[in-house]
Amino acid sequence: SQNKALAAKKAALKGVHGKAVRKIRTSTHFHIPKTLVLNRAPKYARKSIAHAPRMDQYRVIRQPLNTETAMKKIEEHNTLTFLVDVKSNKNQIKDAVKRLYDVEAAQVNTLIRPDGYKKAFVRLTADVDALDVANKIGFI
Amino acid sequence: MVAVKAHELRNKNKAELVKILDEQKQALANIRVQKVAGGKTQEIGEARKNVARVLTVINQTQREQLRLFYQKKAFTPLDLRVKKTRAMRRALTPFEKSKKTVRELKKLAHFPLRKYAVKA
Is A106 exposed, middle or buried (0-12, 13-18, 19+ CB in 10 A)? Predict the structure, then answer.
């Protein structure tokens, strides 16, 4: 019985956490351990309404050009010239022309004029006549 | 150029308003083209305001509906909350301001403001 008591005392003094396991480090560098990453689950939307697309086709294309050089381009190179929004890019211009005038653009070249407006040269596909499209739009 | 009337627009539903908005934008684009071709330019002002009117009606009704929707909820979107000023939003509420300590309550109870009159 005394042995039992001594054993119990020893166990009580030793405590429960006798077996501490040391991690095996296989590299000399310490990298931050990966922890749990939760997905966002917001309690409320920050903006009440999501905005409609701001760069729609009406904003991209401002007006067509009918200057002498623009008319030359229509007749000789099958291209239409537009003043477009400065922040628009060639893909947006292509898309806008398609939506507004129902024509495919083979190629779009752009430049920014010295007075701040962006000019776009929209070459139409060979099966469409630029002059017809220009008449249809109405700026000839 | 026919001026769109806001009170007529408010009877319409969302799909119709979006269609009308597209039509008005189209009309504005056409007037811009006419300007280049040397046509009438006086209608451009009216056209721009028409687009603005339709957008106003769309947004106003949307926000109104959302406010109704969020009335019972605990958390509302930030742009539907009261704006005021940053400091005012963080100030104590009227209830919080009215709270008194027990000590103060006792004082008020024992030493109220007395009313008296002076005999003439």
Answer: middle
- Selected residue of A46, A47, A48, A80 to mutate for chain B interface (largest B Cβ count, 10 A): A48
User: Which of A43, A44, A63 lies at the smallest CB-CB distance from B36?
Assistant: A63
Query: Any idea which residue has 């009216």 for tokens?
Result: B46
Count how many pairs of residues, chain A against chain B, have C-beta atoms within 8 Å. 49
* Interface ipTM > 0.90: no
- Averaged confidence pLDDT in chain A: 93
**DSSP secondary structure string, A49-75?**
SPPPPSS-HHHHEEEE--SHHHHHHHH
| pLDDT tens track for A77-113 | 999 999 999 999 999 999 999 999 999 999 999 999 9
Cross-strand pairs, A31? none
Report whether A67 contacts A73 (CB < 8 A). no
Angle of helix A90-101 relative to helix A130-137, nearest 10 degrees?
A: 70
Measure CB to CB from residue B66 to each of A49, A56, A64 and give the nearest one. Answer: A49
B34 contacts chain A (CB < 8 A):
yes
B115 to chain A, closest Cα gap in Å: 53
Chain A within 8 Å of B113 (Cβ-Cβ)?
Answer: no
**Contacting residues for A77 by C-beta, under 8 A, at least 6 apart:** A123, A130
